[in-house]
Hints:
Blueprint: H1 3-22, H2 24-33, H3 38-44, H4 47-65, H5 68-77, H6 81-93, H7 96-112, H8 117-136, H9 138-149, H10 160-177, H11 186-195, H12 199-224, H13 244-259, H14 264-280, H15 290-307, H16 311-319, H17 323-333, H18 339-347, H19 354-366, H20 378-385, H21 396-416
Helix pairs in contact: 1-4, 2-3, 4-5, 4-15, 6-9, 6-13, 6-14, 6-15, 7-8, 8-9, 8-10, 8-12, 9-10, 9-20, 10-12, 10-21, 11-18, 12-21, 13-14, 15-20, 17-19, 18-19, 19-21
Amino acid sequence: MTPISMEWVAAFLFAVALIHTFTAKFFERLSHRHPEHAGLFHLLGEVEVVFGFWASVLILTMAWFQDGTEAMAYAESRQYTEPLFVFVVMVVAASKPILTFVISMVDTLARLIPVRASLAKVWLGLCVVPLLGSAITEPAAMTIAALMLAPQIFRSQVPERVKYLALGVLFVNISIGGTLTSFAAPPVLMVAGAWNWDSAFMFTQFGWKAAVAVLVNATAAVYLFRNHLGVNSSVETVPEPIPKSIVVVHLAFLAAVVAMAHHPVAFIGLFVMFMGFAQAYERYQSPLILKEALLVGFFLAGLVVLGGMQQWWLQPIVASMGPQTLFLSTTVLTAFTDNAALTYLGSLILDISDEAKYSLVAGAVAGGGLTVIANAPNPAGVALLRAGFADASIGAGGLLLGALFPTLVAMVALACL
């Protein structure tokens, strides 16, 4: 099989993976209807498994029609730093001392806001934490926000439409909330070096506009589902106080992992030391989210493998558009492929104008909440929040509808301010 035909096979499998992503909830329902095959249907219903599964099919297909050496060479040529980093930062950021520290800060801020405490906490989780992602990276912000919001919004007593709206706002705000700096948002990171965009440039051109959109989205969402946030929906506090020294060490591990985000040897080494420290002080830990983080890493690794062979049709589309068309089209395209992949392809285009550069990145981050695959931290949010939805599964259609309004807000802010 020629390289060109293999590219067509990869494009076909990518389309199949997309369809599978949108129908994952269907397989989850089948697991309840056919208990004799519940394990298989439950596996196929795991959104985080989809791209890893079809990436494996691609590698096996390459090995069958070409040879195993070429297939393995392609798999090993992919860059897996991001999946590895997301796995590590999820586990560290979700550790009990860090989550307890963040919740205590949120409780303190909530008392300063002249509204009901439950409303203030949710607003902070949808507004302040996503903006904090510009400092601690978007995957870490997603992990913290999801764990904070889970007992407040994503619970059985809250209507599904409210949960999907909250999920859409969270995903969109995380996607645009990381644009205040040049290192926190994956789609920005892909072009920052190539186009010499530093954090000062990002804040003046993107960041403050994104902050306005985040504020509008969070405020509107909390107002709309204010009646579903009762006084008893607050996050439970830890009975036994955690020593400050333990918290400081955990925060230091998180800071070091974020600082070494582009150096997998370093942050994996830090992670091993973190695991040892967590085990040594197990009494101050809740179970680490290793399973959830591994599934997310598997999802992103699969996206890297499948997405690596889509450049032949994506790049000509991106290169052929004017700035305004590019902005709108990129927002839509992001729903069907990772936004970092789109901006990376844009960075390869020669003589791209400054207007087109802005439009490409603005569209990529604005559309980052439309689907699970649109932005790298989204699978982390799905893994941590899906238990609160019907059938313990998040429907692609529900997420899309929930994200439409906050996406439009982000588009208006980035295009008009």
